[in-house]
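Researcher: We're teaching a course module on how sequence relates to structure. For the next exercise, students receive a sequence and then see the predicted structure as tokens, so they can try to spot secondary structure elements on their own. Here is the exercise chain.
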Amino acid sequence: MRTAVAAAALLTLTACSDATTPRPDAKPGGKPAADRPATVTVTPQGRHAKAGEPVKVTAAGGTLTSVTVTDAKGRHLTGRSSADGTSWTSDRNAAPGTAYSVTAATRTKGGATGTAEASFTTDAADKVNKVEWRPGVNATVGIAQPISLVFDNPVRNKAAVEKRLKITTSDDTEGSWGWMQDYSGRDRVDWRPKSYWKSGTKVTLDAQLNGTDSGAGGWFVRDYSTTFTIGARQVVKVDLDRHELTLERDGRSVRKIPVSGGTPGGDKRSWRGTAVLMAKEGTINMNSETVGLGNAYDKMVDHSMRLTWSGMYAHAAPWNAKWFGRANMSSGCIGMSTADAAWFYKQVRPGDPFEIKGAQTKGTVAPGNGFGDWNLSWADWQARSALR
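Model: And here is the predicted structure for the students to work with:
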């Protein structure tokens, strides 16, 4: 028998009952009240439903025994029932521009069961926010590599976004999200451990952003995920006062390399603090005008390893050979011989920390200038979370 229920939600219900004889409270020509299935209501509703809210299913006169919510591609929204079983709420919000189908099974105290079905469609997003993220899928990275998300548009609802970012590690690594402005001027959020990662740790990011409103920057209309592994424990220590770079692996010195850092006394000084190897870029053209140093240089440079967005690299610098191990005379980068650079380039990987010190440097690498996250204390880093 089919009976219309909850007209506002446009549900269809099929009722079943074991009753075989009329009961005293039955209306003439009708079914006993105890045998009537529960009334089910679903929100959101209609063809122009509001996105960004959870799907809620409620039962009046009974309890929900199961609820299934799927979109047009067959993807399910998971959810949880209330303690008394009269309501169910999805774990995630309804996404923009999506059609959903809902099926709910019910049971009354008298044993009557029913199945209700509903559908609704959310309006499309008028503005979409997209994400760039690092590291890439299945990468093996160094022990200082943060998980980093940069947003195309501003994120006003930072707490709502941060709640949708899930980190899973193979060894329960302690860490925190921290918000900042990227060097590009865009909003960015990084997750870094309290201390350097342990070698061999498996890490998964599950950014369940689909259906989240970023605020003025628009809606997220997809999820993002990446899985990566932490490689060997390598630390690069750069002492610009001694003009020396040391590669350490598992706490032991592997090799010392004479270097020349940025020229003291002006804009050509190097940065200090912890910089993280961002990328191994190989042979590239370096033009001083792109980093505000006029026409000081314009040349092809081999074995280039990027350390900051502002243009600090470690690389081969054969033109500066007479200063290696003796003086800092570069335009801000950490230069070494071609042979040393070729060897070093093969040893390091993105995510390796460069711990740089020197009396005549121009300041500490900022969090948004590459991956300068490690230059904040743990307490200061945690304070950058929108959920603190």
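Model: If you want an answer key for the exercise: DSSP finds three helices and 26 strands in the chain. The first helix runs from residue 158 to 163.
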